[in-house]
Amino acid sequence: MKLQTAIDRVSLTEACHLAAQLDGKTDIIEMGTSLVKDYGNLAIEKLRGVIHHSELLVDSKTIDEGAYEFNQGFKFGADIITVMGAASYDTLQVCYEVSQQINKTMMIDLLEVSDEKIKKILDFPQAIYTLHHSIDKKDQQDAVASVSDFHQKFPQINRLAIAGGIDLKQATALAQQNLVEVVIVGSKITKASSMNEAVNEFMKEIKGYDSNNYERNK
Amino acid sequence: MKLQTAIDRVSLTEACHLAAQLDGKTDIIEMGTSLVKDYGNLAIEKLRGVIHHSELLVDSKTIDEGAYEFNQGFKFGADIITVMGAASYDTLQVCYEVSQQINKTMMIDLLEVSDEKIKKILDFPQAIYTLHHSIDKKDQQDAVASVSDFHQKFPQINRLAIAGGIDLKQATALAQQNLVEVVIVGSKITKASSMNEAVNEFMKEIKGYDSNNYERNK
C-alpha cells in the first residue's frame, strides 16, 4: 500500500517547504485542490521543482474540459491527476486517453457518485478509483468497512484508493485489509506537531519500515 | 434576461484585455474554470481590477471544501461563484451560507446531475440553478426544450441559467421563452472575429437595445 500525503490550505511557499520535507518520505505528494484553486496549474512547476523522489499528484477535481485540464496538469509536472467520477463519461474518457498516451495516471474521485453511475464508468483499467468522504460532511466514515463494501460490489476494480479523515489507526487497518493501493492522508501528517515523525509513523505502520530509509527500502 | 460572457483558455493577460473590452457591454463577465485552474483564485484580483460595470462570476466548480473556496473567491473579488450540484448537500449548504452572509450569489452547476439529486437540493431560493451541457459531450442540446422540460419538472426554481454551446439563434429563442435569468455564452462571443460586434449583437437580440449604450439603458 502506498501513502499519499496531501498538502492543503497553506501558502505556496509553505507548500513547497512541506513538499521538500516530504520528498522521498511518502510515496505520493498531493498538491491539494485548495492549492490548485488558489495558485493554479502554473504553480505545479514550483512543487515539481522540489520533488525528486516521490510522485506528484495534482488534485484537479476535473469535471469538464478534460483534455485541456489534463494536458495542462501533466505539462506542468503532474504524475497523477484527479477527475471527478461525477463528470460525464466523455470527460472521463478523454482524461483517460490523455493520461494513457503519455504513461501518466488518472485518478477517479468517487465523491458523491452513486453505484448506478459507477457501473457506467468501470472500463478504465489503469485508473485508480478513490473512495472519498466529503470534508464538508459532518459524519465519519468507517474506512475499512467502506472499502470492503465497495470491493464486494465492484470486484473488477483492482486499483483502489481511499481519502477522507484517515488516521493512523485506520491506515494500519487498511494495510492489513490489503485491498487498497493508495491511502490518502492530509492534516494528520501535515498539521502534526512533527510532520517528519508523523509521516514516518504512517510509513512504518503501513509498510513495516522506517520512511527515513525509504530510498534504501524501495 | 442577462448575458453572461465566459472567458476561457487564454493567458491571464489576454483575459484581462478581453474583460476590459467587455466591461459594461455584458451583464456578467465569467472567469472560466480554465483560468481558475491555470492561474488560481489570486488572479481574480487582476480581472476585478479591470471590471467596473459588469458583475464578475468565478466558475470555480467547487465540489468540496465549500467554505474555503467560496470565502477565497469572494475575498479576491467575485460577485458570483459556482458550486457543482454533484457536490454533497453539506457542501452546497455551506457555500450558500457563505454567499448569503455577505450578499453575494451562489450559482449551482447542474452538469450531469440526476433529477433525483436535484430534488434533494431545491432549498436554496436565492441561488441560480444552471442547466449545463458538458463541453466534452459530442451531442448538442436543444436549449429551449431543455429549459422547458426542466421548468415543468421543477417549477419551484425561479432563478435559472443555461450554458453549453449557446449561439445567437438559441439566445434569441431563450429570451422569447422568458424562463431563464441568465444565458451563458463563451466562444461565440470571445472568439468572434469582432468580439465587440458579437457581444453587441447578443445584447440587442436578448434585450432589444444596443450594448454600446448599456449604461444608459440599464
TrEMBL record, chains A, B:
Q: Where are the transmembrane segments?
A: none
Q: Name one Pfam family in it.
A: OMPdecase
Record's keyword terms, sorted: Lyase
Query: Single GO molecular-function term?
Result: 3-dehydro-L-gulonate-6-phosphate decarboxylase activity
Q: Which residues form the signal peptide?
A: none
PANTHER family, alphabetically? 3-KETO-L-GULONATE-6-PHOSPHATE DECARBOXYLASE SGBH-RELATED
Please identify the protein, giving its name as recorded: Orotidine 5'-phosphate decarboxylase domain-containing protein
